[in-house]
Amino acid sequence: MKEIFIKTEDNIKIGLNHYSKNNENVVIIAPGWCMTKDSFAFKGISELFAENYDVICFDFRGHGKSSGFYTFMSKEISDMNAVIEFAKNNNYKNIYVAGFSLGAGVAVICGANNKNISKIIAVSAPYDFNKIENYMWKKEAWMETFRKFELGRFLSVRPSVILHKKIKPGEIIKQVTAPTLFIAGEKDPTVYPWHTEKLYNEAVCKKDYKLFQGGCHAEDLFLHFPELFGKYCLDWLKD
To answer: Domain range for residue 85?
Structure first.
């Protein structure tokens, strides 16, 4: 794995981990809010996909090794487009994007506009940011964080204090043409599964929907059900 830094169109430094074995296809992994490319969960997710593909896992602005401030699915579109351009310049035949939580929302928005994306995996994607439940008092919301506490990850997060205009994934889902796998957790306390199910129902691309019975939020689905999560994702990409 090699750590690389690139720049966005608005001059934000984006840190990424490039797992390269000279495969012809690459999976871009987009973490959600308060998660980084070097966190325990996303190192594991990167290694899962790296068994079959090259992998690029990156920090959105305001997280980890990237500069700037996080804008909650507003300017992060530029971050993902810059990473996709990096993958394109590395001459990959297919560019797949696996997004988690708000990272999944960004993946859906980019999928409506960036035709370099071959397939999408959207895990716990919000239909509308303003309708995210985020019930932080539920044990499912903090259980995994408590179990694997990463002080450095939390200290690296820099949210913007300015409210930015956002595109709602639900507003543009019909414009997504890349085949998309929608994944949700039945007991997600942060982004209730209706968000992902509604995106799935309104999508007009080739699509599939997987609901993890008893599952929680985003990367927790990988941590709690690694074999089943891996099977769903890898089968979708090779199909």
So the answer is: 2-238
Burial class, 10, CB count within 10 angstroms (exposed 0-12 / middle 13-18 / buried 19+): exposed
Query: Which one, of 23, 30, 31, 88, lies nearest residue 52 by Cα?
Result: 23
What is the tally of structural domains in the chain?
Answer: 1
Structure tokens at 171: 């507003």
CATH number of the domain residue 234 falls in:
3.40.50.1820
The CA–CA distances, whole Å, from 122 to 5, 77, 148, 153 equal 25, 15, 24, 23
Taking only the tens of pLDDT, the chain with its 239 residues reads 999 999 999 999 999 999 999 999 999 999 999 999 999 999 999 999 999 999 999 999 999 999 999 999 999 999 999 999 999 999 999 999 999 999 999 999 999 999 999 999 999 999 999 999 865 545 554 555 555 658 778 789 999 987 788 999 999 999 999 999 999 999 998 999 999 999 999 999 999 999 999 999 999 999 999 999 999 999 999 97
Task: Report the predicted TM-score, pTM, of the whole model to 2 decimal places.
Answer: 0.94
